[in-house]
Protein: Heat-inducible transcription repressor HrcA
Organism: Alkalispirillum mobile
Amino acid sequence: MAVTTRGRGYNSLMSQPRETKELTPRARHLLRTLVQCYISDGRPVGSRTLLKASGLSVSSATVRNVMAELEDMGYVCSPHTSAGRQPTDKGYRFFVDTLLTARPWDNRELDRLALRLDGGERTDDLLGSASSLLSGLTHYAGVVTVPRQDLRALRHIDFLPLSGNRVLAIVVLNESEVENRVIETDRAYQESELRAISNYLNAQFGGCDVYRVRQALVEAMQHDRQRMDQLMQLAFEMGEKVFSEAEGEEDYVVAGETNLMALSELSDVDKLRELFRAFNEKQDILHLLDRCLSAEGVQIFIGQEAGYRVFDGCSLVTARYAVEGRPVGVLGVIGPTRMAYQRVIPIVDMTAQLLGAALNQSR
């Protein structure tokens, strides 16, 4: 499996840099050290601990003064007066945008990951493998959106009569993806009628991508009904039922949601209930991931940046994957804001590249 790009930058983010007061080199160094310490052990960082971890030759009083300035600027906060400080969403954002350095990939490590995504697998299996890979490597929740329907080609369609006014549509997409759909019709159809309808649709649309098929059917039904003979009208009505139902199926595969239950930051029962409701209802997550499909590079949403209250306290790291050079879906990781970004970002980036390569290979 060939992956052509390695060592890409990881600072192509959805959010634009904030206009803030310029931090001194010392403040930047202490902020970076504080974020790293907090990510490592999850406890507010005191000035003495911070001074020791930073390696700076300054006094504890100097560190406390810098921390007070950073708190006034909104980069850090203190859970209570006697505790040390921890990063805010703004502090994490500054860390990711300006202080993070990407870890280069070792070729042997890349080869091991590639073995987990076999280009000979079906698309559904590849998506499941990718989400499990993300979850297993990060210990968070891994999500992968299903490739957009408009980039799948119709190879063949057959119809079989069922009981009552129901018809089974057997749709073959790309080379070997088979989907079965049961549709309700206005009347019962004979097998010979359905064979004639499928023959007509295969002759007209075989090899076309699903989006164009759906668009052509809708336009024809709206504008050319008077010029259609009976077979054409029946075929277009049947095809419109099949492919209009397919339009609402764009979805995602998720793995490792239960990993979030073990994280102290997300241990609140009400918070977990909201998160799992979001996973089940899917609308908010799909909308957020869809925003990433048009953006290059790795995208990072920290806390309230996601725009949905359910993701407060969470971070989403995403990247889009491509088939034949066209972005078709998005994958990513959902975890706490106290996330090991330096490790998670390249994992997401490389998994997106490997999934795209595997999908290209399986076509």
Residues 150-249 form a domain with the Enolase-like; domain 1 fold (CATH 3.30.390). The radius of gyration is 26 Å. The chain has three domains: 25-99, 107-147+250-362, 150-249.
